[in-house]
Amino acid sequence: MKFRLIGVFAALALLSACASKPPAATTATAPAVAPGPAPGSEQDLVQNVGDRVFFAFDQSLLSSEAQATLDRQSAWLAKYPQVKVLIAGNCDDRGTEEYNLALGGRRANAARDYLVAKGVDGSRIQTISYGKDRPVALGDNEQAWAQNRNAITSVQGFNPQAQ
C-alpha cells in the first residue's frame, strides 16, 4: 500500500513539473518573418495571381477568364522584371500523343503571346508542351478533362536575394 501511495505522489510530482510555466522570454527575440510567400516566388504567383488558365475542348483560344488571369500575370511579371517563367501547355487524355503535343504547344504559345502583347519581354518566357503526359486531375470524365486542358505558368530560377 505504501508503494502505491508513493507511486501516486511521484506521478503527481512529475505532472506538476510538466505543468510549470516556461521561463520568461528574453529581450533578444528572433526577427519577425513576413507571413506568406516570398515576393516574386512560385508560391507568390500561385497564391496571389493564379498560375494557370483553362481551355475549351480542342481549343487554344483564350477565354475572357483566361485573359483576366494573364492580365494579373503580366502585372506581376512587370513588378518582378528579373523573374523568368515557363508556360506548359497541357491537354486531356483524349486524342493521339502527336495531336495533344501540338495542341498543348498552341495553348502555351497563346498564353505566351498574350503576355508579350501586354508588354512582357518574350525572352523571359519559355514554352513547352506536355500534351496529355502530365494530368493534374485523374479520371475519365468532363470534370477531370476540363482541369487538364490548361497552360500553367511556373517561375524558373527564383532567387530571393535578387528581389
Which descriptors apply to this entry?
single chain, 163 residues, alpha+beta, 60s Ribosomal Protein L30, Chain: A, four-stranded mixed β-sheet, globular
Structure at a glance:
By secondary structure, the protein is α+β, with helices and mostly antiparallel strands. The chain contains five helices and four strands; from the N terminus they run H-H-E-H-E-H-E-H-E.
Oligomer: single chain
Number of helices: 5
Query: Spans with pLDDT under 50 lasting ≥5 residues?
Result: none
Succession of helices and strands: HHEHEHEHE
What does this entry look like structurally?
The chain has helices spanning 2-18, 42-48, 64-79, 97-117, 142-148, and strands at 52-54, 84-90, 125-131, 150-156. The protein is of the alpha+beta class. It has a single domain, classed as 60s Ribosomal Protein L30, Chain: A, CATH 3.30.1330.60. The protein has a four-stranded mixed sheet. The relative contact order is 0.18.
